[in-house]
Amino acid sequence: MSIPSPLPDPLVELVAERFRVLSEPARIKLLDALRAGPASVGELAARAGLSQQNASKHLGVLHSAGLLERARTGNTAQYAIADPSVFTLCELVCDALRDRYSALQAVIPPPQAPIGR
Amino acid sequence: MSIPSPLPDPLVELVAERFRVLSEPARIKLLDALRAGPASVGELAARAGLSQQNASKHLGVLHSAGLLERARTGNTAQYAIADPSVFTLCELVCDALRDRYSALQAVIPPPQAPIGR
DNA sequence: CCTACTTACAACTGCTTGGTTGTACAGCTG
DNA sequence: CAGCTGTACAACCAAGCAGTTGTAAGTAGG
């Protein structure tokens, strides 16, 4: 374990910030869209079902967070994954969610889909 | 890869929600405090440097998210980690952050600590 | 029974931020 | 040069949430 026991405050902030960047459905969709490979803003917006402005905004957030790389080629901007660990994070969460809900499904007489906040 | 390619919307929501729960420094501190083992609200509040009400509130959030287990014994409430995967998540983020900042340190003539938003 | 203690909840405030709208800027094309 | 396309930025509105304050409920102890 290379992590100090009382997490220093600055590290706590950075970790929370990283999670905050990933806490938005639109950004998860964009990252998901990037699983198919690098693409332009318009292409990603289409894949994720977002407006061009909204996609650009969220891509900017992901880029400033260091999760994406940007490459401008002529008139278009190519975004690509800069930190592949985000996929590992998402997979871990998906596994945990699957475990949780399968556990729930084993307990509840399920009347309907468990989705609904 | 057991994860569908265009992530279904409900799953996207759940993943984002999980990250949102982890996107708060106070909650990261509480989880960090729980690395030393289960403890009462007051104890955790002290460890994390939070007020009792604030700690209770955030512990409630973590509990509703399924990350913590609650056990009331007499007058006190014992909270414990229910989903150890959160630690894996935090370690992954810490590693990624370390990589990122070491990469930055290799580029920048570092005048000072790179922490500072 | 009365007091002290621990936990949880409700109300309030201020800040942050997501999505939209409008627009500016840069590059390609004819 | 003019028009079109792709991208980014700024301003606005509305919703959500963190932290505080106050307090209620439940338990243990004298």
- If helices are DSSP runs of H or I spanning 4 or more residues, what is the number of helices of chain A? 5
Strand count, sense and barrel status of the largest sheet of chain A are: 3 strands, antiparallel
CATH superfamily of one domain in chain A: Winged helix-like DNA-binding domain superfamily/Winged helix DNA-binding domain
Approximate helicity band of chain A:
55-70%
CATH architecture of one domain in chain A: Orthogonal Bundle
Quaternary structure of the protein = homodimer
- Strand and helix order of chain A: HHEHHEEH
**Low-confidence regions of chain A:** 111-117
Mean pLDDT of chain A: 90
Shape of chain A: globular
Q: Give the distance, in angstroms, between the N- and C-terminal Cα atoms of chain A.
A: 36 Å
Determine the most extensive contact between two protein chains. A-B, 46 and 45 residues
Helix and strand content put the structural class of chain A at mainly alpha
* Strand order in the sheet with the most strands of chain A: 1-3-2
